[in-house]
TrEMBL record:
Residue ranges of domain Glutamate/phenylalanine/leucine/valine/L-tryptophan dehydrogenase C-terminal in the record: 149-381
Source organism per UniProt: Actinoallomurus spadix
Superkingdom of source: Bacteria
SMART domains tied to this protein: ELFV_dehydrog
Family per similarity comment: Belongs to the Glu/Leu/Phe/Val dehydrogenases family.
InterPro entries, sorted: Aminoacid_DH-like_N_sf, Glu/Leu/Phe/Val/Trp_DH, Glu/Leu/Phe/Val/Trp_DH_C, Glu/Leu/Phe/Val/Trp_DH_dimer, Glu/Leu/Phe/Val_DH_AS, Glu_DH, NAD(P)-bd_dom_sf
Cross-referenced PROSITE patterns: GLFV_DEHYDROGENASE
Protein name, as recorded: Glutamate dehydrogenase
Keyword line: Oxidoreductase
Length: 387
């Protein structure tokens, strides 16, 4: 009979910003294993999505929680960074049992310190299950409209914001979005909505990829057909365009704008050195490695960082958080209007500050967010004033 080994590796995750709390949970009956990371709550209670994937690790969730800290501060909304993750296959037949076990295990933290939301592997119906298990309307956001929620994945608010940020950034660079070639890596909720809005703004979608492969047409894909196939066939939609190219092909096609909208670290040094894109708009969280960011900056490729470009989801989450106990539903018009205003302004501000300070856009964006978090930490006496 083996013995459990307690590792102190989690301490290596801690720095001057956080995390403040890491809660690892498990359930013997279902085999559920999960983690909640509260990164920094100086500006408000922890808020971030809940992810389900066999590849979830404590380090991954901590990285994503830190991104949420900067994302909330960058859009100047008053929540703190947090993230949760469940180590499981979202297609597992016992998904509901795992979700309920996870919710029960975090009953001490939810909803007082954290509120469940949607991330990779979870749907609006899953948010309803989490709410039901804890019996509290405040336990989750991203709920179906029938439960009074604002279904922001269904409405595509994050992808809409990515497109709005792309439009504003392109204009700042002197690049006309209408007629510009765009490649989108990832056709999940974010990628689909980004494709839809980019096409409305006049962009030409030359490539789109899923885990199955990449559909590519240098003259532009029929976006209406692409979105209809995606809704019908999911990741296999690319097969309707002939034998699909490898998924990573979307990162290397001839394009003016590249939108990574799927997983972390897909833009590595090789992709950064070879891309023809003049602008990269990060729809996914952490899609470019640090080396890739440096190479893009050296080559003069502008980048709208993830926590600037994909903050549409948290604008919607902020509205949803405010309305959790209200009998009234959130007005989508209010959400889309705020997304457009905030993300366009932030995209331009970050690119302008990057040029002024001769730093990467990520460094400029971090400086903005960190100054706001630091001020809150000082005011709450969480750090000495002179730090």
């Amino acid at each position: 009979m083996g013995s459990a080994v307690v590792s102190d590796d989690v301490f290596a995750l801690m720095d001057e910003w956080g995390p403040e709390k890491v809660v690892c949970v498990s359930d013997r009956r279902t085999g559920m294993r999960g983690v909640l990371v509260l990164d920094n709550t100086a500006r408000g209670m922890g808020k971030g999505g809940t992810r389900m994937s066999p590849g979830v690790t404590v380090g991954q969730i901590a990285r994503l929680a830190r991104t949420m800290t900067w994302k909330w501060a960058a859009v100047d909304l008053f929540h703190g960074g947090a993230k949760a993750g469940i180590v499981a296959d979202p297609a597992a037949p016992d998904k509901e049992e795992i979700l309920r076990a996870f919710a029960r295990a975090l009953a001490n933290e939810v909803p007082r310190e954290y509120v469940f939301g949607l991330d990779m592997g979870l749907t609006e119906n899953d948010a309803a299950i989490l709410l039901d298990e804890l019996g509290d309307r405040g336990a989750a956001v991203g709920l179906p409209g029938a439960l009074g929620g604002f279904p922001y994945d269904q409405l595509g608010v994050t992808g809409y914001g990515v497109a709005e940020a792309a439009d504003a950034a392109a204009a700042e660079l002197g690049l006309e979005l209408r007629g510009a070639r765009v490649a989108v890596q990832g056709l999940g909720a974010v990628g689909r909505a980004a494709v839809r809005r980019l096409a409305e703004l006049g962009a030409v979608i030359v490539a789109a990829s899923t885990v199955t492969g990449c559909a590519h047409d240098p003259d532009g894909l029929d976006v209406d057909r692409l979105l209809a196939l995606s809704a019908e066939l999911g990741d296999d939609c690319v097969r309707e365009y002939g034998p699909p190219a490898p998924p990573e092909r979307a990162l290397s096609v001839e394009t003016d704008i590249l939108v990574p909208a799927a997983r972390e670290d897909v833009i590595d040094a090789g992709v950064a050195a070879a891309t023809t894109a003049k602008l990269v708009v990060e729809g996914a969280n952490l899609p470019a490695t640090p080396d890739a960011r440096a190479i893009l900056h050296k080559r003069g490729v502008a980048v709208v960082p993830d926590f600037i470009a994909n903050a549409g989801g948290i604008v919607a989450a902020a509205h949803s958080m405010d309305a959790r106990y209200s009998p009234f539903q959130v007005d989508p018009g209010d959400v889309f209007s705020m997304i457009s205003t905030k993300l366009r302004a932030n995209a331009v501000a970050v690119l302008q500050e990057s040029r002024r300070a001769e730093t990467t856009p990520h460094e400029a964006a971090y400086a903005l967010a960190q100054s706001r978090v630091r001020e809150a930490m000082v005011l709450r006496r969480r750090v000495p004033e002179h730090v």
